Every structure is written in structure tokens, then in C-alpha cells.
Amino acid sequence: MRHSLAAAFVIAAAPALGQATQDFPEGTIAVAPRAAVQARDFMVVAAHPLASRAGYDVLAAGGSAADAAVAVQAMLTLVEPQSSGLGGGGFLLHWDAASAELTTYDARERAPLAAGPEYWLDAEGAPVAFWDAVVGGRSVGVPGTPLLLETIHARHGRLPWGDLFAAAIASAEAGFPVSARLAGAIANARALDRFAPARELFFDADGAPLAEGAVMRNRALAASLRTLAAEGAAPFHSGAIARDILATVRGAENPGMLSMQDMESYRVIARDPVCMDYRGHRVCGMGPPSSGALTVGQILGMLEGVDLRALGPGPQSTHLFLEAARLAFADRALYMADADFVDMPEGLLDRAYLADRAALIDPATSMGVAAPGTPPWEEARARAPHTDPEHGGTTHFVIVDGDGNMVSATTTIEQGFGSRLMTGGFLLNNELTDFARAPMADGRPVANRVEGGKRPRSSMSPTIVLRDGAPVILLGSPGGAAIIHYTAQAIIAMLDWDLDPQAATALAHAVTFNGPVSIEATPDAEARAEALAARGHEVTVRDLNSGLHIIRITDDGLLGGADPRREGRAMGD
Ligand code: GLY
């Protein structure tokens, strides 16, 4: 018998919870929480202390949030090269305090104009294997990050453009100590040492991966940053750097077909935010080509009717969260893609539709694999789903400046170390493997198939949560498709369970992409796994490496949280 979702909180009522995670049931905390960082005027949270420092110095000098974002991204290209950089793309949310305007910038990489649905099929018409697709030139899309930085600076910047690169150029020339995370990433990277520029940067003279603490200099990147500082993004789209990118992509093993026309015609697009109401707040994020805001919004919309505050964190909340995620990922697989190329239903966040979907959730037993729904849209059954797993080499940063302007940005080169190809000291993305490699299934087209000039579907979920028309939370995370779960869970942690942003990052994760469930490896993982298995989930235990970076804007100032699973830092004043 089906139970109504509203009955869920009756089954496992828990005491009301405050901000102290030590009150939480055993096993719900993955990492010992530390105190949130407090500041009065401005704050930056980024994935590496040098990146946070670069942003902090810009803000302390009176720079805007957009200025600081330029400095942070330039530094991340150097110190967290495996995750993001000038050879990649991303999405950036900007809040303008004076006009109370939220803009979402789409700097997603783009497929070659000459590409078609057969792009990822081999000579026999079969989709190429994932890793065969990743490595080499064919996976590289037109990078968007340099033009994103130029665009946000032109619209929202205050300090001189060229000055914003000084810290990254100085560190690239003087060198910086390789972090534990970067050293581990190099040591574990597939095929990285096959390519001379990557071998020379990331390995020592004997061919050993650089160890933690080794000094890495990147003079080629310093030169690229000098060019960007002096000439803006133009050389990346029509000048010498564009020519180098094309030569690298077209001359590599597994060559790509990017052309100068692809580079020159690339645009950063300002799009309307996608927003969902939740617990008296408005949760806003990036619409297509990202699936982030729609899928986070669906999960929250389906859980709005559940008294999660009364339930508290624990197996019952996790069960309901996972069921909502199944339903949302079923819709994501079928419908979500670059809406400039494929029609998408408008009703994916429709309240009545989400209430119908939520009614499918049994509070006692998992539905297993969810079927996609039929949101108000007549073509709903004409599509085939894209359910390939996604992997993440991605970063998230959040910034508030002294005037209340804000940035929440997720940027990426897709896999850790992207395509492995390098130009000018930066790695080139493999974003085109975020497309479905099979363009058709069961005789129906896949929405996220390759098309010329299209942007691949993303999971990146840079988010700004508003209350009464003003931002109160900035957040997001790396983590491939699990970005969606990490972001949705952190929102629930703060809005339902009153956790501060640092404590919200410490909750143990559970994810499903509408199949088996993965739960985070914690000392109590076995007990959590049993509790979910008792509700019918197929569970495995593994590392779930979120990189949540959060700022909460309160009446008393700013509170910052940096995910303790990674190396990020919150800094403010
Ligand atoms: N490449 C990761 C994402 O866009 O979700």
C-alpha cells in the first residue's frame, strides 16, 4: 500500500535541533565540524588558501565581488589546475546590490559548429568508451572562462583589470608548494604523463609525480595571464592563444575538429535565473544548459511537504531525500539539456506536478528505479534518457564584497586534469564528454546528444538563496552529478536544521542517480547502510568528496564555511 509523503514525519519524529551537530544522531556527521568563519564587511571562500587570499586582498583594496572573482579564478588556474582554469568553462551568479538584480552567466564550453550527433560514435556506430573519449583533442570544447572573467569585470568590476592578475602571475613565477590534494591527484591521474607539457609541469625530472610540498613553477601560465591582463580575452578567441589551442586540439591523438570560427563566435550568455520557493526562501541558480537549479529545485519542491525539521537528519530523512532525488534524476535524464537546441518542458518546477511526483514516495520503502514524469508538456514522451555517470574536476567559490555585491560561481575543466592537453600553461577541458555519447535510444533522440555549437548538460549548481528579495545564502560544490545532492542537502541543513554554513558542510552524504545508493564512508557507515537497506535501497559505501563553499549573510554579519574534505578556506574582514 502507498503511504502519503505527509505521513513520513509521523513515523520518526525527532527532537527539534539547533546548530550543534553534536546533538545529531550518530553517523550523520562525516567530518568533525569546526567553527564557521565570521566577518563584518566582506568574505571569500575558495578551494585553496592562495585563491582565497588573492580574493581577500582584492576585496580589502576596495574591489568588487566581480574583481575578486577574477583574481580567485586566475589563482585557481595555477594552484588547483586539476579542477578549473583558463581552458575550461563555468557558470557564475552575480548579485548587484544597487539594482537588486540577480544575473546568471553561462560560460559553458561549446561543441564545434561542425559536430553532429555521431560525434562520439566509432566506425561501427557504437559509442566510444568513456576514457577513450576523455583523453586527447576530441573532448575539448571552446573554453569560456577567460571571456567570463572579462564580461563580469566589464559589467561589475571596479579595480583596473590588469591588476587583478598580479597575485597569480607572481605565484606562477615564484612557485608555490604543491598541496596534498594536488599531489594525490597527480599521482592518481590516468594518462597524464603521456603528454609532454603535462609531464614537464606535474612530474619531476625522473618522471615521478610531484609530491606534497614540492615547488611548482608555471612560467607558461604566467605568460598567458600577462596576455590576458594586457589584452583581455580576445587572444583566446581570435589571436595567438586561440591558434595554439586549435593546433593542440587538432594535432593531438584522438584529434578534435575545433576551428577558428568556433573560437571567434563563442559568447558568454547572461540568462534568467531558475528559482524555486522553499521554506519561505527563494532558491535561485543556473538554468539550462545546467541541470543544477532544475534538479535541486525539484528535490526541494518534492520535500517541501515533509516536516524535515521534526524528522531531523538520520535514516528517514535520508530515505525521503534519496527518493526525491530518484524522481528528479529520472526527469533530468529525459528532459534536461541545452534549451537553445532542444525544447524542454516548462512545468518541471510546477507545484502541482511536483506534488504528484512526491505522492509516489513511500515513506517506508524505496521505489527502486523511478520513471520520468510527464510535466505539463505535450512532447513529454518523445525523448530517450541520458543517464551516463558524470565525474568531476570542478571548483566552487563564493564572494561578498563590502557593498553587498555577491558572486556564487562553479567552474570546471570536467575530469580532474581535463583532456590532459595543455596550451600556455593551462589544461584544456574534456567537457564534450558531458554530452550523451549515444545520440539515440530505442529509436528516440536523447536530449543531451551532441549538436554543432551546443553546450553539454551540466550538473553545476551555483546557488543564491534569497529571503524577502535579498540574498541570505551563497553556496555550491564540485562533485560531478553529486553536486546536486550536496547542494540540496546543504540547503536543507541550513533552512530545516538551522545549521551554520560550516556545520552544513560536515553532514555525511548519500547520493543516488536513480539506481543504487552510495553513502559516504564514515565510521558509522555500516549502521547507516543497514538502515537504508531496511528501506529497500541497494547501498554501497564510498568516499563522497564534496567541496561545499558557503557564505551565510545574517543581520550580524557574514558566516563562511569551507568543506573540511578539501583544502578550501573562508577569509573575511
Ligand atoms: N563537468 C561537470 C559538470 O558540468 O557538471
From TrEMBL:
It holds the Pfam family G_glu_transpept. Cleaved by autocatalysis into a large and a small subunit. Pathway: Sulfur metabolism; glutathione metabolism. It comes from the Bacteria. Gene3D superfamilies: 1.10.246.130, 3.60.20.40. The active site is at T394 (nucleophile). It catalyses: glutathione + H2O = L-cysteinylglycine + L-glutamate; an N-terminal (5-L-glutamyl)-[peptide] + an alpha-amino acid = 5-L-glutamyl amino acid + an N-terminal L-alpha-aminoacyl-[peptide]; an S-substituted glutathione + H2O = an S-substituted L-cysteinylglycine + L-glutamate. Coiled coil: none annotated. Residues 1-18 form the signal peptide. L-glutamate binds at R108, D434, S458, S459, G480. Keywords: Acyltransferase, Glutathione biosynthesis, Hydrolase, Signal, Transferase, Zymogen. GO terms for biological process: glutathione biosynthetic process; glutathione catabolic process. This enzyme consists of two polypeptide chains, which are synthesized in precursor form from a single polypeptide. This is Glutathione hydrolase proenzyme.
